[in-house]
Write a structure and sequence with these properties.
Protein name: Transmembrane GTPase
Oligomer: single chain
Largest sheet: 9 strands, mixed
Main location: mitochondrion
Keywords: Coiled coil, GTP-binding, Hydrolase, Membrane, Mitochondrion, Mitochondrion outer membrane, Nucleotide-binding, Transmembrane, Transmembrane helix
Strand order of the largest sheet: 8-7-9-6-10-5-11-12-13
Pfam families: Dynamin_N
Bound molecules: guanosine-5'-triphosphate
Strand content: 5-15%
GO molecular function: GTP binding; GTPase activity
Length: about 800
């Protein structure tokens, strides 16, 4: 008697397996949901908050530093950071402790590369791939990663469906006439499949619960070449369950394989189909022979076939076809469930068992290793009727099959999902911990940047008003000084010219004699006009010096207020360009200059607006020689200047005036109005006297000659005085004060000074403003960067925690007890 017949509470064991399976399944579904939510969150974070970096780990050399890896990122493969790889593939920076020899438990069991989230960045040859990777930007890698995350989420959804799928298919196959249909019927607790001593099963009969067909018992004959859909009756023809035997007999004569879907109602609660956890459908396959072998092998390979039950007759052992099938199937499915049927017919059961097991050992070693659970010796024919040890053996086999289905499902459906989840979670952990390191280093970097830029910005902010004040002061002081200086120089010059003296180092021409008096007057006029122009030039030169000084002060202000690293103004102040005209067109040589500016220096003179260049000022008139009107006014002055003075013609009174003037000046000094009146009275007395009248003519003639002589002799000194006075009067006689020569020049010099200083100030202000804007932007960026990196640091830490929780809650990685 075999030990397999010993009672081992098979049903209780099957229940345990079922419970374990259900727990395993539920935990996996939870883990799948949590992992999916983490992946979705990473996608969202990658999209909205942080460009997730894709880490690459390189193995360190073996030896005491086994735990060390170097971490780099796909977008920057050249920068490598030494890291320590934790047991769950979380990475952390290498610390001093890591120099110690790692213990066995610390050695990371997982490889350092990604499993699920691996990006296929290596395109083309190794060299070009390297250059490609280095060219990939952070964002494009993040995009690739996002796609990979999306694929993983889609895959996870499929896994969830697979884990929750309760349908399971058990293919019953074996040698011809081995009792497959009898076994299926016994498992169904109903005579459904035709049983005959002759080989009779010619079609694949897939038995389902009638609930899958709306509770209706029926046989669906699936049309060859169509995808079966129970809801679409164009994909099958229907027959009654009772007619199954006839149908199968009918197919016996035909060559093509058929698939029959058999829906059964009112199934036995204890049958294999009512598993409670999975809906098992039994497929009764045709007996194996040369013709059916290939088809059945192909059928068994289908993914939805969870378990292959191989039925062998204890009487015949394995045929060649059976061996071939078992060999192929065991290579693919590893474990097979073998039912040695018709065991009742065997007398020497031990020998039979030994021989059969020996054969199984050769054909499917792993099935042999688990023979107690996977190889069963039964009598299917009497299982239902018998309640003795045959029935017990059958029951045990049934329970074992149920457990095996679940165990197989655990291995074929749950285990791969669990492995996938474990890999995915450790990928997430690697991704999160590496990004956490990046975030940490970015926090540090942002803080370092802030430490460098914030004080500079603060200093600029607090110095802004001071700079503004300084620039205003320089401008106002410069303009003030230049104006005051100009006013003084011009006033002095005008005073001097007004008294007939030239200014500066200019000299009056020497008197060439009476014959050239006209030329003399012209030259004197020119010299005196040049004097005023010279004064203007001097005032301009002073303004240039003052402006240069101001420009230097502005430069100093720039040095004081502009932060290091900001480019200083490249403008070079050219004092000679002040008060200059920019002429375009013709160069000094008369050639056309293309758009090149020619600076004509020399202020008012250079601009052609000097007094000496004004034709109206150059004109020499008779009045430059004898300003009789002036003489008269000096001696009989009405106390006010007359604007008509310059253009009045000499009349009789003027002539008298000249004479009187001459008279009065004979003595070398003016005798005053009273003296003149007295003289006139005496003259009238004199002319009323006879004798006097006789003498009058020669006396008057002598006096006139004397006067003329005097005037002529005085010309070298009187002409400069006269011309100077006239020039002074002319430049001062403009009605509008602002247009007066002096004030006009003072204003012009002040304006030009202001223009230069303002330009320099504007330049500095602009530099200061843009530097401040830039520093402000840098500070803002660093602050935002710090905030973002801090958030990322926190977020990736939480991802690590969540991954740990998922792993722990689902008890992933623990061996599932079945
Ligand atoms: N004594 C005994 N006879 C059995 C047993 N199982 C099946 N038989 C008989 O063996 C014959 C063949 O049984 P089937 O169930 O038709 O065999 P099968 O493997 O389905 O045959 P095909 O599908 O036609 O290859 C029938 O006469 C059964 O009564 C068993 O365990 N003990």
């Amino acid at each position: 008697m075999s030990q397999s017949y010993m009672p081992v509470r098979p049903v209780a064991k099957a229940d345990d397996v079922q419970d374990a399976y259900n727990h395993h399944k539920d935990r996996l579904v939870d883990a799948i949901d949590s992992t999916k939510s983490i992946l979705t969150d990473i996608r969202g974070f990658n999209k909205d908050d942080w460009v997730v970096r894709y880490p690459q780990l390189k193995e360190a050399a073996a030896g005491p530093e086994t735990l060390r890896r170097s971490l780099s990122f796909a977008d920057d493969p050249t920068t490598q950071t030494p890291v320590r790889l934790g047991p769950t593939r979380s990475v952390s920076l290498v610390s001093l402790d890591d120099t110690k020899q790692p213990t066995d438990t610390e050695i990371p069991p997982l490889s350092s590369d990604f499993h699920v989230l691996r990006l296929d960045l290596k395109l083309g040859s190794a060299n070009s791939a390297l250059s490609l990777v280095s060219q990939l930007e952070k964002s494009s890698i993040a995009h690739l990663l996002d796609e990979r995350l999306a694929t993983s989420i889609a895959h996870i959804d499929k896994l969830r469906l697979r884990v929750q799928d309760t349908s399971s298919k058990v293919l019953v196959t074996g040698d011809l006439n081995a009792g497959k249909s009898t076994l299926v019927n016994a498992l169904l607790r109903r005579q459904v499949m035709p049983v005959d001593q002759q080989p009779c099963t010619t079609a694949f009969c897939e038995v389902h619960d009638a609930t899958e067909n709306g509770g209706v018992e029926a046989v669906h004959i699936v049309k060859v070449g169509t995808a079966y859909n129970p809801a679409d009756d164009s994909t099958f023809t229907t027959a009654a369950v009772e007619d199954l035997e006839d149908l199968i007999a009918e197919y016996e004569t035909k060559d093509t394989e058929h698939l029959l879907k058999v829906y059964l109602a009112g199934k036995d609660q204890n049958s294999l189909l009512s598993n409670g956890t999975v809906n098992i459908s039994l497929i009764d396959a045709p007996g194996l022979n040369r013709d059916s072998l290939k088809t059945t092998a192909l059928f068994a390979r289908q993914e939805e076939i969870d378990v292959v039950v191989f039925v062998v007759s204890a009487e015949n052992h394995f045929t060649l076809s059976a061996k071939e099938f078992l060999w192929t199937a065991s290579n693919e499915k590893a474990y097979l469930f073998i039912v040695v049927n018709k065991y009742d017919m065997i007398r020497n059961k031990d020998k039979c068992r030994r021989v059969v097991l020996e054969q199984i050992k050769g054909l499917s070693p792993r099935t042999f290793e688990d023979a107690n659970d996977l190889v069963h010796f039964v009598d299917s024919a009497s299982a239902a009727n018998d309640d003795g040890k045959e029935a017990f053996a059958f029951e045990e086999m049934e329970a074992a099959l149920r457990s095996f289905v679940l165990t197989k499902r655990s291995k074929s459906k749950l285990q791969p999902v669990e492995t996938f989840l474990l890999n995915l979670l450790s990928d997430i952990e690697l991704l999160a911990s590496a990004n956490k390191l990046v975030a940490e280093s970015e926090v540090a970097q942002a803080r370092a940047e802030l430490a460098a830029t914030k004080p500079v910005l603060e200093k600029m902010k607090s110095g802004r008003d001071k700079l503004e004040e300084g620039l205003e002061t320089v401008e106002e002081e410069g303009v003030g000084k230049a104006s005051v200086k100009a006013k003084k120089v011009l006033t002095d010059a005008l005073e001097q010219v007004g008294s007939g003296k030239p200014f500066g180092d200019l000299r009056l021409p020497s008197y060439p004699g009476l014959l050239s008096v006209w030329d003399y007057a012209r030259d004197v006029r020119r010299t005196l006009l040049d004097s005023l122009d010279l004064a203007v030039k001097l005032a301009e030169d002073e303004a240039r010096i003052i402006t240069s000084d101001g420009v230097v002060q502005i430069k100093d202000l720039g040095e004081e207020h502009l932060p290091a690293g900001v480019e200083r103004s490249r403008r070079i102040f050219m004092p000679e360009a002040m008060f200059s005209a920019v002429r375009r067109g013709k160069g000094p040589n008369g050639l056309k200059t293309r758009g090149k500016a020619v600076v004509v220096a020399g202020g008012a003179l250079g601009l052609g607006i000097g007094l000496a260049s004004r034709p109206d000022m150059q004109e020499t008139t008779f009045l430059d020689l004898f300003d009789v009107n002036h003489q008269f006014l000096v001696h009989f002055g009405d106390g006010s200047k007359s604007s008509s003075e310059t253009d009045s013609n000499p009349g009789a009174l003027s002539v008298v005036g000249v004479g009187v003037g001459a008279l009065t000046m004979v003595g070398g000094q003016a005798i005053g109005v009273r003296g003149v009146i007295e003289g006139v009275v005496r003259l009238s007395d004199f002319f009323s006297n006879e004798t006097a009248r006789k003498w009058a003519l020669p006396v008057v003639g002598a006096v006139t000659i004397g006067a003329v002589v005097y005037v002529v002799l005085e010309l070298p000194t009187s002409i400069p005085r006269t011309i100077g006075r006239r020039i002074k009067v002319t430049v001062e006689s403009v009605e509008d004060d602002d247009n007066q020569w002096e004030s006009q020049n003072v204003v012009r010099i002040g304006r030009e000074t202001r223009k230069v200083l303002r330009l320099a100030s504007w330049d500095l202000r602009e530099r200061f403003r843009s530097a401040m804007d830039e520093r402000g932007k840098e500070v803002r960026n660093a602050e935002e960067g710090e905030k973002r990196a801090l958030k990322a640091q926190e977020w990736f830490t939480s991802v690590g925690v969540r991954v740990g929780e998922v792993r722990e809650n689902a008890r992933l990685g623990e061996t599932v007890a079945v």
